[in-house]
Amino acid sequence: MLVAQRDYSERIKMTSEPIRDQVTDSLLTPSNAALVVIDYQQSQIQTVRSMDHDLLLANIVSVARLARTFDLPVVLSTVNVANGQGPTLPEIKSVLSDSNEIDRTQINSWEDVDFRQAVEATGRRKLIMAALWTEVCLTFPALDALREGYEVFPVVDAVGGTSEEAHRAGLARIVQAGAQPISWASLACELQRDWARVSTVPEIVDVVLTSRLLKSA
Which residue from 23, 75, 86, 131 has the highest number of Cβ atoms inside 10 Å of its Cβ? Predict the structure, then answer.
């Protein structure tokens, strides 16, 4: 059994191509992408009707954990906390504890100077985006980012709208404009890319399998 495992590892090393340029790669990599998380607040999630709230929260927490695993720059924003709307949900904030919250009054976060400058400061042109609601707080900044030449990757199972129809319409609108939809699990695999990259394997196995997909099996 040990010999078989060694042989398998050797085959992996032999067949894996050299790592592609992590900055110019057409796919998402830890060196070319940033995560943008917008308005995951109690006042927002409680009005989502397009998917189960617990599942939605679990999925966005997984996305946040992936960002930390691969050391992605994170832009975290809230709306109207100064006027009593409440901060980022604690389950998310505990993962992104070193990310400052950018509070806004604008519904479209792209129209907030601090938010836009924070995105620009990441130096990344591929934006993994998640927001509540899909049809508003995801759609508006995604469209603006696309117009400014960014690539936008909405995490479709970590966002939610005020109805299933609104959620689907919001996604359709940004996809027609050029956004590239992904799921939280596909994001994990795209960033990991090769099991021979062993430094992140234990955390990815936990994020995707142990803590999530196999937990209720």
Answer: 131
Closest CA to 92 of 145, 131, 52, 51: 131
The residue to which tokens 């006042």 are assigned = 43
Q: What secondary structure, in 3-state letters, does 78-136 show?
A: EECHHHCCCCECHHHHCCCCCCCEEEECCCCHHHCHHHHHHHHHHCCCEEEEEEECHHH
Q: Which helix (H) or strand (E) holds 172?
A: helix 164-176
pLDDT of residue 42 exceeding 90, the answer is: yes
| The dihedral sign for the CA sequence 83, 85, 90, 92 | negative
- The single-letter code of the amino acid at 184 is W
Give residue-wise pLDDT tens across range 59-77: 999 999 999 999 999 999 9
Which sequence positions are flagged as catalytic?
Answer: 137
Closest to 195 measured CA to CA, from 209, 212, 179, 181: 209
Give the global pTM. 0.92
- Domains of the chain, CATH where assigned: 29-213 (3.40.50.850)
Helix, strand or coil for residue 153? Answer: strand
Q: What is the predicted pLDDT for the residue at 17?
A: 79
Dmax over CA atoms of the chain, in Å, equals: 63
Residue type, 21: D
The token duo for 141 is: 């900044």
To the nearest whole percent, how much of the chain has pLDDT over 90? 90
Q: What is the DSSP letter of 155?
A: B
